[in-house]
Amino acid sequence: MGLAQFNPVVGGIAQNSERIRELYTLANNAGCDIVAFPELSITGYPPEDLVLKSGFVAENQQAMREIVAATGECVAVFGFVSGSHGDLRNSAAIASRGLLHGTYDKHLLPNYSVFDEERYFTPGSAFSLFTIAGVNVGVTICEDIWQSEGPVKAQAQAGAALNININGSPFHRGKFDERQQMVSERAKDNSCAIVYVNQVCGQDELVFDGGSMVFDHHGDLVMRAPQFEEKLTFVDLEVNESLSTRGVPVIEVSAESRARGEEQRGLISSPAADLEQVFGALVLGTRDYVRKNGFTDVVIGLSGGIDSALVAAVAVEALGKQHVHGVSMPSRYSSEGSKTDAAILASNLGIDMQTISIEPAFSAYLDMTAASFSGKPADLTEENLQSRVRGTTLMALSNKFGWMVLTTGNKSELAVGYFTLYGDSVGGYAVIKDLLKTTVYDLCRHINERSGRELIPEAVISKPPSAELRPDQRDDQSLPPYEVLDPILELYVEQDRTAAEIISMGFDEALVRRISRLVDVNEYKRRQGPPGVRVSLKAFGKDRRLPITNAYRG
User: For the segment 348-394, what is each residue's pLDDT rounded down to a tens digit?
Assistant: First the structure.
């Protein structure tokens, strides 16, 4: 059995098909009876409104036929879009020896969180079993396996001794363990071995972490592929004796037993700890977004603060230090310590760094607006001007050198609007937009631990956070301490609790009312920001869709 955990490009029909054929050839030469690819592997997942283009659907179906024609003895199971406009299906093809033996249409279409498959697809309702090398095999797709009374059970009751489940299952914290426990239970409850194949890629804000796995009919783990990397893995699987089929079509698919190589066979990769998984997701999401959108290099404003330090460390891991450029943009309010910390960070990471003072431009803005602002005291306006000068400077470097700007705002700041529109929010990708500030600190410490040295200077981690837009400014002058703020945000944003519910849990009423109000009124600012890596159960983006004009206060 082969599990082809690979990295597709959404919309890249030709390159995805070529990669499928390459991996299929390796599996066929290694003597696999079956090799399985992820959900919608020809189109990449999720293709979203691309499937509303009839030409796109036709190209994907032609690619499916070409892959089928290229198959040999090994049976290939791979995903594609079948049907036509008004009746599209999320389907799997089962093929070998140049023949399409059958297809399976996904039964359960997820329509929650980041998923809206009911917008595009018609659910399937029937299935066939495929007898391969003497074993009755069922095929299901992603969501089909999550329901205990769903298609996996129906196919097992019909006689399937092995179920191949192909997936586009996105990452969030805790998902890996949840997924593994679920697949184990499904195998054990149905006395059916399960092969679970997941794609591994970054797709806009989503990250698919791989972690493909195989469980025997006792629910015991037989193989587990690593997270966050491509892997073609082979496993020898002994399955429960096939039951007699009960009125379900069974398609005989010949698969001869051949000599099998031993490379990459039967691996059980150790799961990474929570913070290492988060780091892996940030790295993969950043790498794929930058490279798949045609960029090689990125530029980051290095303030000497913890957020820009984390973004720079992730970027170096994702792209290599030679492709990361840091820019220090001091103003009259920048402390000497912050400028020094930024330089030390750049040196530790080995990245290019330049210094561009924003003082001339800031002074010019003050002079330009002096008459208009006459009689008005300095306030947030002047603070935002500095941020906007920095944003303009980074975008100028992006235009001149073709570097993508990585923004450095975290989820706590984005939630309450503690950022400058058209200032520090400008850029192409928001690497840590789904990390609460307390998690930013945790992850920086983790990066130093995994590096075995002080990659991110301890001074950056230990000093009070500050935007440094006025004398002696600290974040806690405008916001509650992050250890107080973040639990409220987690409840209000990620768990969708109302303000009243959070207050009933014992949180200070005035504080909860203030924070929830800030979250609500800053929706318009978040809508204008770039996408970023999703690592929580609910991020600002695809799975949180609230109206900007909104009078509900809970």
Answer: 999 999 999 999 999 999 999 999 999 999 998 988 999 999 999 99
Q: Name the active-site residue from 32, 39, 74, 317.
A: 39
Cα(408)–Cα(485) distance, integer angstroms? 19
Q: Which two tokens mark 383?
A: 């603070």
pLDDT in tens, 393-403: 999 999 999 99
**Active-site residue flag, 39:** yes
pLDDT for the residue 257: 46
Write down the pTM of the prediction.
Answer: 0.93
Given the residues 32, 74, 106, 143, select the one marked as catalytic.
106
Report the sign of the C-alpha dihedral through residues 547, 548, 553, 554, in that order.
Answer: positive
Domain ranges of the chain: 2-255, 275-527
| Set 59, 74, 117, 142: catalytic member | 142
Annotated catalytic residue 32: no
Whether residue 106 lies in the annotated active site: yes
Which fold is adopted by the domain 2-255?
Answer: Nitrilase/N-carbamoyl-D-aminoacid amidohydrolase (3.60.110)
**Which CATH topology does 275-527 take?**
Rossmann fold (3.40.50)
Give pLDDT, residue 255.
Answer: 54
